[in-house]
Amino acid sequence: MATIPFLPGYAEKPSSQLPAGRLAALSSLAWPMATAGLPLGVLLPAIYAQQYGVSLATLGFLFLVCRIWDAVTDPLIGALSDRTRSRFGRRKPWIAAGAPVFGFFTFLLFFPQGEVTALSLGLALFAFYLGWTMIQIPFAAWTGEISGEYHERTRVQTFLHVSVAAALFASLLIPTFLDQVRPGDNALKLTAMGSFVLLSLAISVPLALRSFPEPRPGPEGPRAGLRETLRAVASDRLLLRVLASDFAVSLGQGIRASLIVFYVTFVMGRPEWGAGLYLLQFAFGIAAGPIWLKIGRRYGKHRTAVAGEVAQVVINLGLLAVTANSFGLLLALTIAQGLTQGSGNLMLRAIVADVADAKRLETGQQVTGLYFSVFSLANKAATAAAIGIAFPLIAWLGFDPKVANDPAALAGLAAVFALGPAIAHALSALLIFRFPLGEREHAEIAATLARRDSIPVNHGA
Fold first, then answer.
1. pTM of the prediction?
2. Based on the number of CB atoms within 10 Å of its own CB, is 437 exposed (0-12), middle (13-18) or buried (19 or more)?
3. How many CB atoms lie within 10 A of CB 227?
4. Mean pLDDT across the stretch 283-312?
5. Topology of 23-216 in CATH?
6. Residue 146: which of 344, 322, 350 has the closest Cα?
7. Which of 301, 378, 414, 434 is the most buried (most CB within 10 A)?
């Protein structure tokens, strides 16, 4: 099997495996990103509304505009990082520059100073998301470039998946613990979680930047303009299939996440388990990554993604059998959900780098950063669409969290909670089924790129 030894000093390893310790250090950069997301979406809006008098309409408008801002900055920074040339590499300068921006505005958002106005909050959010993107997009591209070997890319993404799951688990522990010590003190939760984000940022950035040298870029073809590059992305059928499949995965996950509190509280009558089920799911999600890595090595990325999505369909359909008196069944399905958590996202993210290789072979252009930025946009769009679909649908079916709901309304909520994700995951499996770029095809692409880039090709077992 042909592999591209991008990293000097590791090419002689017969297994082509990158050192686990260095991969763990690299993946640690996912911690500040993951731990910032939960309080930003859950705690921060409520606190700014209750304690600083920012209206809900203003908060909703600001977060909506920030999503539009992401749609501009994600592909822009992805394309610019592809074109960056420095002695430190393409991705590291962006991460190093984004870290202080992200850190400074994290401090302003989580530790508000003085009077808070819509203008000051809006500027802080815009700058915060800019810093976030300056780290996230180049980092995602870097993880796709560290190895050119088909299965090793899955291993890199597995380390990242486990790191994200562990970070989310840790970030959920903080409000759960504080609810026991200082119930209802949301300001303390925000301060504690903000401190956790800043601490993880301070530790992870130097660890990640020192973990690996960046891969040597091959010779570039004629440089296309940004408009031509974006047009090429829109015409890449392989990428569009991956994006559509991941959109469906994330849509199913988003519907489940947005409705789980309503479901546990009103259908199951166990409101105290809202956070507990999340913790249980993420605990098993941490263990799931290595399992799916082994499956992926044996059956290939797209087949493994299909298997994971079919398993998700079965699990979510199983929720139709859950009743208020069968809480044990819900716990069992939650554990199963954790064991399949992110299997599709993990494999699809690893496939993006393979698709970028195919595009570089075709055009000579480096598009890894751009492709991962579009992948990120699809994920964010799906998360937003999940709420936009699930909430109006359960309202149309008669559910209202402010009143006592009749059995028909609760049945409608339970049906959407089960069938919405099941349908989305089934669609994801169909979209990636029989994907034409597998291990053999990528090995041929890798060997051709290696010859063209004058990089020796290692023929391992």
1. 0.79
2. buried
3. 8
4. 89
5. Growth Hormone; Chain: A; (1.20.1250)
6. 350
7. 301
Structure tokens at 375: 């992948």
Where is pLDDT greater, at 457 or 427? 427
Distances (CA, A) of 288 to 55, 156, 158, 166, 172: 41, 14, 9, 11, 18
Range list for CATH 1.20.1250.20 in the chain: 23-216, 224-454
Sorting pLDDT into bands at 50, 70 and 90, what band is 460? very low
CA distances in angstroms from 18 to 6, 22, 23, 213, 355, listed in the order given: 11, 8, 7, 12, 21
Lowest mean pLDDT among 189-198, 230-239, 329-338: 230-239
List the one residue out of 191, 205, 203 whose CA is nearest residue 107. 191
Exposed / middle / buried, residue 383 (Cβ in 10 Å: 0-12, 13-18, 19+)? buried
Query: At 3, which helix (H) or strand (E)?
Result: strand 2-3
**DSSP structure class, residue 155:** H
The domain made up of 224-454 is a member of CATH 3.10.20.90 = no
- Which has the closest alpha carbon to 249: 100, 115, 129, 422? 422
Could you give the dihedral angle defined by the CA atoms of residues 139, 374, 107 and 43, in that order, rounded to the nearest 10 degrees?
Answer: -130
The residue whose two tokens read 């819509």 is: 118
DSSP 338-358: HHHTTHHHHHHHHHHHHHHHH
Nearest to 283 by CA among 159, 169, 175: 169
